[in-house]
Amino acid sequence: MISQLFVLSPRGDTIISREYRGDAVKGTSEIFFRKAKFWKGDAPPVFNLEGISFVHIKKGSLWFVVTTKFNVSPSMLIELLERVTTYIKDYCGVLSEESIRKNFTLIYELLDEMIDYGYPQLMATDELKVHIRSEPVVVKRPPPRSVAERIGFGRRTARADATTRTTLSSKGSSGKNEIFVDILERLRVLFNAEGYVVNSGVEGCIQMKSFLSGNPPLELAVNPDLVIGAENRSSGGFLLDDATFHECVDLSNFEGERVLGIKPPDGEFVVMNYRMSCDFRAPFRVLPHIEEVSPYKLEFTLKIRADIPPKNYGTHVIVKFGVPRAATAVVPTVEAAAAPPPAASGGIRARAAAAAAAAGAGSGAAAERLQIAEFDSKAREVVWSIKKFQGGREVTLKTSITLSSPSAGSARKEVGPIGVDFEIPMYNVSGLQVRYLRIIESAKGYKPQRWVRYVTQASSYVSRC
């Protein structure tokens, strides 16, 4: 089975390391980090060096890695790492470098109970809880470091407090019976240069975190016309290509009534994973246009339209695109939106500083309108940040690119592709809905609280130029 498990920081420092078999060579973590850091593109989740197999996942900026010298199923090791990260988050409240450093004693306890001599043992939160003695150290959210973060950039949708509460102390300390349900969807969309969708898909899940005393059984109802399986496409209704369910889910009433019976375990778990590849309305339409002003100058105009209802909005929208290698000067300019309030003068950075000052003085209106566009000379790309992108609006970025040599048409091909990252709260493209969440509990005075949230994010949202 596995020889060792270790957790590395973004700098390559070893935060957690556990040897299980004693057959690993010295400096394994340094070997892995050096190879993965300088890999062309992203390192594959599994690779072999000198007879040692490295299997890893990346959560945030942290590397979670196991090594083995045996012919072990890679998918099983990836699932093992996923569960390790889930349980660390359940018991520590937050999965971050600071949280791991402050709770290393607790994490070593978890690893000792979960894995013995390289073999997985206890893999359930309620089973582990009996054996854990250390109390978690709750880590507060760090203060914003940059001007962009202070005025709101880099901050995604406000999280439910369940994401920072630990499984060990939540029920006793809060005194609340609560259950949190998240419908999360990640979009994969590819546009051509004319703005039409070439390929698209949705990967989604229904995720729960339960803080109900006694773990009472639940009933969760979804769309009554839900159809699973491409072979059932002709039957009409709301179609998913496929779906998988957690082992705690009872499907006896699902076929007829589309109701899931759930006996929730402690901690966070995924009730249902699903996939959809049929057509859907892309939330953001990307429209690029390149004009060759002269042999030494290009004008790149990028329009993005929010094709979502006006009541919804995108947050933390980040747009990136590459520029030609011969570019010597790149000047991005944000144009006013379709119906914008008056913009402050003094350039992009001046507007950022002014908005930060206004936010600090108690005026949030300026920060809500803010956009920032700048050229990253090291990465050779333009980064355009939009704090809040309201549905139905259109924004435009014009970028002037000066070249060191005549383009002869070749420089146009080096612009792009355009990548878009975003998050849309209380919105999903698939149409999957939770009709009701029923808690089956007969005791008097039992007043649980239910929280349901929809979140849509970009997984791979790319447009060709």
UniProtKB/TrEMBL annotation:
Protein transport as UniProt keyword: yes
Organism whose genome encodes this protein: Cafeteria roenbergensis (Marine flagellate)
GO CC field: clathrin adaptor complex; endomembrane system
GO biological-process terms attached to the record: intracellular protein transport; vesicle-mediated transport
The keyword Protein transport belongs to this UniProt entry's keyword annotation: yes
Pfam family, one: Adap_comp_sub
Keywords: Membrane, Protein transport, Transport
Annotated compartments: Endomembrane system
Coiled coil: none
Family designation: Belongs to the adaptor complexes medium subunit family.
Protein name: MHD domain-containing protein
Annotated ranges, domain MHD: 176-464
Top-level taxon of the source organism: Eukaryota
